[in-house]
Specification:
With 171 residues, the protein is mainly alpha-helical. Helix content is 58%, strand content 5%. The protein contains 9 helices and 3 strands. The radius of gyration is 16 Å and the shape is globular.
Length: 171
């Protein structure tokens, strides 16, 4: 394990392809950037070689994710949209499918659970307005993730408050 300068641990910045992988398990019609920059997402993106990031500090920052999204946009692997009232990134379904298929089987659980944790984190801050555009997008993200994740895995980590609020808001 390498270290950083002055004996400090090396900081692993999330690269564009790891950021794209997290977005690939969500809704291709637009992932809110706040989901990808949430504390839960930053912990997932900072993992390296399957090791968990320390809980005491965030080794990755939202700026790192935004930089990664800029790279992906320049490579035409994501599209950006700010017309929704909140910034989103969109992946084509072809790119999304290819990325998901490239994820090793033993890494899928961590990916799906991290995406669910990121959705839950943003939901908690937005749930006071369940009919808002952002909450509708989060429900769509949840639906997309549910389709991608195994049913038992989703149930195992599901937050009853999150599920109940999502169901109630759907009507």
């Amino acid at each position: 394990m390498g270290g950083g300068r002055d004996g400090q641990p090396a900081v692993h910045r999330p690269g564009p392809f790891r950021t794209r992988t997290l977005a690939a398990v969500l809704d291709p019609h637009g992932v809110p950037v706040t989901v990808l920059t949430s504390r839960s997402a930053l912990h997932y993106l900072a993992r390296r070689g399957g090791r968990r990031a320390p809980e005491t500090s965030l080794p990755a920052e939202a700026r790192d994710v935004l930089d990664a999204l800029d790279v992906l946009h320049r490579l035409r692997l994501v599209e950006r949209d700010s017309d929704t009232g909140y910034p989103t990134v969109q992946l084509s379904t072809v790119v999304q499918t290819a990325v998901r298929r490239a994820v090793p089987v033993d890494a899928r659980d961590a990916l799906d659970l991290s995406a669910a944790d990121a959705l839950r984190a943003v939901w908690r801050t937005a749930s006071d307005q369940p009919q808002s555009v952002l909450c509708r997008a989060l429900r769509s993200e949840t639906d997309a993730l549910t389709r991608q994740a195994r049913e038992t895995q989703w149930r195992a980590m599901s937050d009853p408050g999150f599920s109940a609020a999502a169901s109630a808001a759907r009507g």
